[in-house]
Amino acid sequence: MGADLPLVLDALVVAAIALAGGVGATALYLRRRRSQTPSGPDVTKNNSQLEERVRVLERIATDRSLGLAEEIDSLRELEKAD
To answer: CA-CA distance, 69 to 75, in Å (whole number)?
Structure first.
């Protein structure tokens, strides 16, 4: 192995650097992804908003009253205010 030893060691160093770069890039990617994912109160707030919208849609789908258009407009006004 004598003459090839420096080449083997250089290849191992290059492989170690590539591995370290890959691990570092993966860690940065996961950190960014975790910071962009809503959690805790944000998720609870979002779920509550979605549940309220579903309730409104269910009521609209089943309600056949004459005041339905006015109620829809008032809900749009409330959404714009938020």
So the answer is: 10
DSSP secondary structure letter of residue 69: H
The pair of three-digit structure tokens given for residue 51, joined into one six-digit string: 């549940």
pLDDT in tens, 68-79: 777 778 888 888
Give the integer Cα–Cα distance in Å for 58 and 52. Answer: 10
Helix (H) or strand (E) holding 8: helix 5-36
For the entire predicted model, the pTM comes to 0.41
How far apart CA 59 and CA 71 sit, in angstroms, is: 11
Question: 43, 52, 54, 46: which is closest to 78 by C-alpha?
Answer: 52
